[in-house]
Write a structure and sequence with these properties.
Elements (H helix, E strand, L loop, with lengths): L2 H15 L13 E2 L2 E2 H8 L6 H5 L3 H13 L11 H12 L1 H12 L9 H8 L5 H18 L3 H25 L1
Antiparallel strand pairs: 1-2
Helix pairs in contact: 1-5, 1-9, 5-6, 5-8, 5-9, 6-8, 8-9
Length: about 180
């Protein structure tokens, strides 16, 4: 995919995620720009890092982390415009495995939670049906959010993010 998909996607993710938070009902714990302390420690390879280190993460580092651990892990450069953004943003919000499983479900790929050659081959079978993939992912994402025990606390925000995610996916597809 062209760099424009990445640029638009990361801009939307960073806007959605915001600054440092440590909400008591959020099982992710301390988070800055959407990066949890646990993920930050893994990415840096330093398990001694604490909340203050996370508070000080630069936007450059957050972008690099997202590229390494989410965009590349989901092979977003190999996905159609729009689908790449949906898969990436959901991976950031709910995990690479969950986002991968949802894409696999929508395209009828073996559900192993890893986007690899078999999943990409299934996606490639639908070149004229990318809008259907986008719609299917929207339904999967909404069902996941509604199934979470913290939906009453965070659901309104998640559904608003889902609406923005889907709108950007459709825009990226139109622009491709």
């Amino acid at each position: 995919m062209a760099a424009t998909s990445w640029d638009a996607s990361i801009a939307e993710v960073l806007a959605s995620e915001g600054a440092y938070v440590n909400h008591p009902r959020d099982p992710g714990g301390p988070t800055n720009m959407g990066v949890t302390l646990a993920v930050f420690r893994v990415w840096r390879g330093d398990y001694r890092l604490g909340p203050q280190d996370l508070r000080n993460i630069s936007e450059h580092d957050a972008r690099s982390l997202y590229r390494d651990l989410y965009w590349n892990a989901c092979h977003c450069d190999e996905l159609p415009h729009g689908v790449d953004h949906q898969v990436f943003d959901m991976a950031v919000n709910a995990g690479v495995r969950r986002s991968s499983l949802q894409l696999q479900d929508v395209v009828g790929a073996d559900p192993d939670g890893v986007i690899g050659p078999r999943t990409l081959a299934r996606v490639a079978l639908f070149p004229d049906k990318v809008p259907m993939i986008i719609d299917g992912l929207e339904r999967e994402h909404e069902a996941h959010y509604r199934s979470l025990r913290t939906f009453n606390t965070f659901g309104k925000g998640w559904l608003a993010r889902l609406a923005r995610r889907t709108a950007l996916a459709r825009e990226l597809l139109r622009e491709a």
